[in-house]
Amino acid sequence: MENSISNCLSVSASNLTALLVIGIVTVFVIRVLYVLHRSARPRHPNSSSQQHLSTLIVLGSGGHTAEMINLLNVLQKERFKPRYYIAAATDNMSLQKAQVLENSLLDDQGGREKVVGSAHYMQIYRSREVGQSYLTSVGTTLLAIAHALWLMIKIRPQVILCNGPGTCIPICVIAFIFKVFGIRWSYIFYVESIARVKRLSLSALLLYKLRMADQLFVQWPQLKNKYPRAHYVGRLM
Amino acid sequence: MAEVEKDLEARRTVFVTVGTTRFDSLVRAMDTPEVKEELFRKGYTHLQIQMGRGSYIPTKSTGEVGCLDVDYFTFSSSIAEYLRSASLVISHAGSGSIFETLRLQKPLIVVVNEDLMDNHQSELAEELAERKHLYCARPQTLHQTIAAMELGSLIPYQPGDAKPVARLINNFLGFPEE
């Protein structure tokens, strides 16, 4: 008699656990689908009561940084502030270039930080160096993700601007997870490098296929034909 | 016009740049008698090689009669100066070097590095070559490209514009048009 009662209890307990797991997974899947659905939809104009958005700018290196600086030159700084610049730990040039840009803004404004907003500079471990094999990339990518998580918890940006290479992938993945868990809603913009004419880079392809970028811009019409959800914007350089 | 040409004839420099990469097969190709003779035949007098992290050291030459003056260095903070004073630029396929040279309206030969693992770089060079903004070569075919090139037929590059991207980002975020 006692045995059958305890049996009965344990069965219902395991049923309950199963139900709970199924429930959580369902809620989670629905939430992911909702986030995917709401991403790639413009921000509602009514929410523009907030006049400026904190912006994370992921600088690539060399040519990537030059393209990003060209974009930053025409963006309205009073809307995209404060600005957080992140570059690979092995790349000293990119943050310097960003600093030159920010200093010129301050000079234009007579040193008034209120208008253009403040700028912050950070370095991040890179997931893959040019020429590194794909196998050893796994370990370095894990390290890069942990570091990116730490930085993202500190910054929690509302807008993310990136244009490759791999440095931006951990950041975009974490931003997406933040959206799913309701930690922070962000808008992710990816500008594919002008060097990509026929095929998307691995970073862009990932963000495109997983629909993690709200908008993905390409600089050559051939790419727009191949990837219809991308936006063709002409050359930045 | 004739005076300008005379002035240019005094010193016509070919500037080779590999950026921050190593590209020994390009430096080696520049060091071959075929390439140097072809450049000399085209009227160039000086050859400056920025060899970056490469390990192949080209032969220096002080430019006796009938041959090129050759010099090299690894890195310089004033690459822009070298580009500006060059009559012809031979560059690796990095987009930074390509667009810096095109913006200065200098004739350009881009040499694609076939040793790179993920060789997407040739895409840009080939597209721009198709649009006649530059010549695209491989290290082995460089001397043929130099022999066959007609710099007059190159079309000046019109710089791009970042405003369309900025406009789309602003629209998406619900910011009003300027």
TrEMBL record, chain A:
<feature type="transmembrane region" description="Helical">
    <location>
        <begin position="134"/>
        <end position="153"/>
    </location>
</feature>
<protein>
    <recommendedName>
        <fullName>UDP-N-acetylglucosamine transferase subunit ALG14</fullName>
    </recommendedName>
</protein>
<feature type="transmembrane region" description="Helical">
    <location>
        <begin position="16"/>
        <end position="36"/>
    </location>
</feature>
<keyword id="KW-0812">Transmembrane</keyword>
<keyword id="KW-0472">Membrane</keyword>
<dbReference type="GO" id="GO:0043541">
    <property type="term" value="C:UDP-N-acetylglucosamine transferase complex"/>
</dbReference>
<dbReference type="GO" id="GO:0006488">
    <property type="term" value="P:dolichol-linked oligosaccharide biosynthetic process"/>
</dbReference>
<dbReference type="GO" id="GO:0004577">
    <property type="term" value="F:N-acetylglucosaminyldiphosphodolichol N-acetylglucosaminyltransferase activity"/>
</dbReference>
<dbReference type="InterPro" id="IPR013969">
    <property type="entry name" value="Oligosacch_biosynth_Alg14"/>
</dbReference>
<comment type="similarity">
    <text>Belongs to the ALG14 family.</text>
</comment>
<dbReference type="Pfam" id="PF08660">
    <property type="entry name" value="Alg14"/>
</dbReference>
<keyword id="KW-0256">Endoplasmic reticulum</keyword>
<keyword id="KW-1133">Transmembrane helix</keyword>
<feature type="transmembrane region" description="Helical">
    <location>
        <begin position="160"/>
        <end position="181"/>
    </location>
</feature>
UniProtKB/TrEMBL annotation, chain B:
<dbReference type="GO" id="GO:0043541">
    <property type="term" value="C:UDP-N-acetylglucosamine transferase complex"/>
</dbReference>
<dbReference type="InterPro" id="IPR007235">
    <property type="entry name" value="Glyco_trans_28_C"/>
</dbReference>
<dbReference type="InterPro" id="IPR052474">
    <property type="entry name" value="UDP-GlcNAc_transferase"/>
</dbReference>
<dbReference type="GO" id="GO:0006488">
    <property type="term" value="P:dolichol-linked oligosaccharide biosynthetic process"/>
</dbReference>
<dbReference type="Pfam" id="PF04101">
    <property type="entry name" value="Glyco_tran_28_C"/>
</dbReference>
<dbReference type="GO" id="GO:0016758">
    <property type="term" value="F:hexosyltransferase activity"/>
</dbReference>
<feature type="domain" description="Glycosyl transferase family 28 C-terminal">
    <location>
        <begin position="13"/>
        <end position="166"/>
    </location>
</feature>
<protein>
    <submittedName>
        <fullName>OLC1v1013730C1</fullName>
    </submittedName>
</protein>
